[in-house]
């Protein structure tokens, strides 16, 4: 019987760089772009001759890749390393099952392993850049053109031939955290397949199921560990956390060595904190791909850390201002969510009106005191995002890296003047990867059209606050 699990990609809306250190938090939104892992037995029969090792087959149809690993059942090592994220997810999921099971369940696990593991991984198109393909087909840079591509479209198209040599395919990504979503989906599918956890399905409310919360915590610990080991470092962990739990406010873990992390896993010590978060009602997340080529997050983080060491006082001041502005934005958005709950009619009415106008007109649109309060909160959120962008630019200039490059600044400023746009920014570590906008009501489609005229491709991604979950079947058959 096949088990299919999925985990969402993410957008770090605030907290770029800061989320690497305590006591700073970031707002991370999970999306409807999901990574899927399908796990089933490789053979229905067990070969009585084989007891010391088994086979793991990994298929990635989008990359046209298939790898067969030989796995030692004693040491749980996989020979022939190709995809460290999946490999460590397999090793740690099996190790977790062994550690948790009594003798009877260990025997059942051993039988499952002797049948071999057949794992297929699939990422929604939104994780990858299809801009080149759209342009090559002579289609306009619109969400409709993106939607015309078949789901799980092949992504080996980035191979370029140079002087008769074919180079390794470079996969252009959109920055949604594909490795974290993939690691989480594979870990979750395996743990469910081994009956270590019982995953919630998307239709269940994950926040009220006591049992599934404990199970999801197990998925988080194993996926987070596998991801850290595969990366060879301990990052902030927000990308795996959002892939597991969904949209949230995330407080960083302190930087640790890999030995300390493994020790903490064994002893169940985790020092990150998360709080449920999602955008206020009638607000939409919109992502755009400017097509200026991607940025290396790792080298940009390195440059910022170097600057922190060389100008500690100045760095601390910028850090503090950014941290305060990030917190202020979260407070304003939560306030808007509360207003929506308490004064729904006024809230809906004023959001609808504001969605049709530029922000300088919003105040004139309010017809009663509650609407005026809501507009004040909207404008406050806008100003706070402008402040966040200002300090991120200063930090980039000081560290000598393009956190908000000039081309992005022009694009974001133009976006902020469009009708129905609450604010816009660069997600995560910034750079040339993508831009995001938060729009009001039904204004997203108009913003997408205006972006298209500025040579920006609006993606199909939207916020979806849900985390890891069990699927009813192979997503390709839907």
From TrEMBL:
SUPFAM superfamilies: Ribosomal protein S5 domain 2-like (SSF54211). Coiled coil: none annotated. InterPro entries: Erg8, GHMP_kinase_N_dom, Phosphomevalonate_kinase, Ribosomal_Su5_D2-typ_SF, Ribsml_uS5_D2-typ_fold_subgr. Residues 173-246 form the GHMP kinase N-terminal domain. This is phosphomevalonate kinase. PANTHER family: PHOSPHOMEVALONATE KINASE, PTHR31814. One of its GO terms (biological process) is isopentenyl diphosphate biosynthetic process, mevalonate pathway. Pfam families: GHMP_kinases_N. It comes from Rhododendron simsii. One of its GO terms (molecular function) is ATP binding. Its EC number is 2.7.4.2. Belongs to the GHMP kinase family. Mevalonate kinase subfamily. It is an enzyme of class 2 (transferase). The lineage of its organism: Eukaryota, Viridiplantae, Streptophyta, Embryophyta, Tracheophyta. The keyword S-adenosyl-L-methionine does not apply. Keywords: ATP-binding, Kinase, Lipid biosynthesis, Lipid metabolism, Nucleotide-binding, Steroid biosynthesis, Steroid metabolism, Transferase. Pathway: Isoprenoid biosynthesis; isopentenyl diphosphate biosynthesis via mevalonate pathway; isopentenyl diphosphate from (R)-mevalonate: step 2/3. One of its GO terms (cellular component) is peroxisome.
């Amino acid at each position: 019987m096949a088990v299919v699990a999925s985990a969402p990609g993410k957008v770090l809306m605030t907290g770029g760089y800061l989320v690497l250190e305590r006591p700073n938090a970031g707002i991370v939104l999970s999306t409807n772009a999901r990574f899927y892992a399908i796990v089933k037995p490789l053979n229905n029969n067990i070969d009585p001759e084989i007891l010391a090792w088994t086979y793991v087959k990994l298929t990635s149809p989008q990359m046209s890749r298939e790898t067969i690993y030989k796995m030692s059942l004693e040491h749980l090592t996989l020979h022939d390393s190709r995809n460290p994220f999946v490999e460590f997810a397999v090793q740690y999921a099996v190790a977790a099952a062994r550690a948790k099971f009594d003798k009877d369940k260990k025997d059942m696990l051993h039988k499952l392993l002797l049948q071999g593991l057949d794992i297929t991984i699939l990422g929604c198109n939104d994780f990858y850049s299809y801009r080149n393909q759209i342009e090559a087909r002579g289609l306009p840079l619109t969400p409709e053109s993106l939607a015309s591509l078949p789901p799980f479209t092949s992504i080996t198209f980035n191979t370029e031939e140079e002087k008769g040599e074919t180079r390794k395919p470079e996969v252009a990504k959109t920055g949604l955290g594909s490795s974290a979503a993939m690691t989480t989906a594979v870990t979750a599918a395996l743990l469910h397949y081994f009956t270590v956890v019982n995953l919630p399905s998307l239709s269940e409310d994950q926040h009220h199921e006591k049992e599934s919360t404990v199970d999801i915590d197990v998925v988080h610990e194993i996926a987070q560990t596998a991801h850290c080991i595969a990366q060879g470092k301990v990052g902030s962990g927000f990308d795996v956390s959002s892939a597991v739990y969904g949209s949230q406010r995330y407080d960083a873990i302190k930087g640790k060595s890999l030995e300390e992390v493994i020790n903490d896993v064994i002893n169940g010590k985790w020092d990150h904190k998360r709080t449920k978060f999602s955008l206020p009602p009638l607000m939409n997340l919109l992502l755009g791909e400017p097509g200026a080529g991607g940025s290396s997050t790792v080298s940009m983080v390195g440059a910022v850390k170097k600057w922190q060491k060389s100008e500690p006082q100045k760095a601390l001041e910028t850090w503090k201002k950014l941290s305060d502005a990030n917190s202020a934005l979260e407070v304003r958005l939560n306030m808007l969510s509360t207003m929506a709950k308490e004064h729904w009619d006024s809230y809906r009415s004023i959001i609808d009106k504001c969605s049709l106008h530029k922000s300088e007109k919003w105040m004139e649109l309010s017809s009663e005191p509650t609407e005026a309060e809501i507009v004040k909160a909207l404008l406050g959120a806008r100003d706070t995002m402008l402040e966040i962008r200002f300090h991120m630019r200063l930090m980039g200039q000081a560290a000598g890296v393009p956190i908000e490059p000039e081309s992005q600044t022009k694009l974001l400023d133009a976006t902020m003047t469009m009708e129905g746009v609450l604010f816009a920014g660069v997600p995560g570590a910034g750079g040339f990867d993508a831009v995001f906008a938060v729009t009001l009501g039904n204004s997203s489609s108009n913003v997408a059209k205006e972006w298209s005229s500025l040579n920006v491709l609006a993606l199909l991604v939207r916020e979806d606050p849900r985390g890891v979950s069990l699927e009813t079947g192979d997503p390709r058959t839907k």
